[in-house]
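Hi V.,

You were right to ask for the full record rather than a summary. Here it is.
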Amino acid sequence: MNAVRTGDYRHDSTERKTVSLPFPFARMERKKDALDRLDLRFRWGRFGVRVLHCHLASFAPGHVIASHKHSEFEFHFIPKGKGRVVIGDNAYDLREGLFYLTGPDVVHEQHSDKNDPMHELCLHCEIKPLDGGKAAGDSGWDDALEEREAEECVRLLQKMPAVPTLDRYQAMACFLEAYRAWEEQSVGFYTTMKQLVIQILLRAARVHASPKSGVPIPERDMNDHRFRLAAQFIEDNESRPITLEDVAERVHVSPRQLQRIFKSEGRTTFRDWVEHVRLQRICAELLQTDRPIEEIALEHGYANPNYLYPVFKHKFGITPTAYRRMHGGR
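Predicted structure:
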């Protein structure tokens, strides 16, 4: 019995069939020149990027692309099959999962395997410095970090050895995402395409980058940041009941810590800050409208309108009525 079972087991194992997985990039063959037709050009930092080709190519068995070069960057990713590339005097085997960059003026020749023909995802793009590029300013919204990252990425691409290497950061996936974005053409299509091209550049450059070559993001002064968040929340909600505990929960600190933040960053107490915001809004209402003072007080957080009078007089030295009359309010 044991011999029979052993024989049956061997027989079953030899009959097993290898299941081939579907080729995920096959959908890109439906319209091979779809992405090539897009006139995609954009600014990245102080560089202009113009996409010349972005497609999936399928080579017949034994196909040879004769020796040639480009004045731009050409990225070659191998999602399926085998082949060989000759770069200068060196020949390299190609297989699924590898990529290589033939940067400006790199002479190369490609061969598809005779038995396992090769597929290639190609991104061919021009990357050039923009003359008179606007430098990052001090407005707080200029993206100096993006400029630095773009410069670092281009520097790495220019130095990248023309040797096939593993696509460790999954740049190939961006090609399929770009094709799907073209199929859908939904809101933000241009921005999506731009970001995906940049991702291919970054993921390719990252393979040969040193661990410390990235541009660090500046760290916030968290006390200042939390103070600004709390102050903005008070501005947005001054007409509602506001407690120290509520605002502390919003900015993810304890009430005691928030009180310390207001003293260190705002040079005042939480209660005085809320009162200041409310009184500023009330002063504007007194001058711009002829609404009753009691109604204004209710609208700006004073559940008991009579409480506004002593608070207002303590702050400004006069009553709300006198303030309105003195400043020519309605």
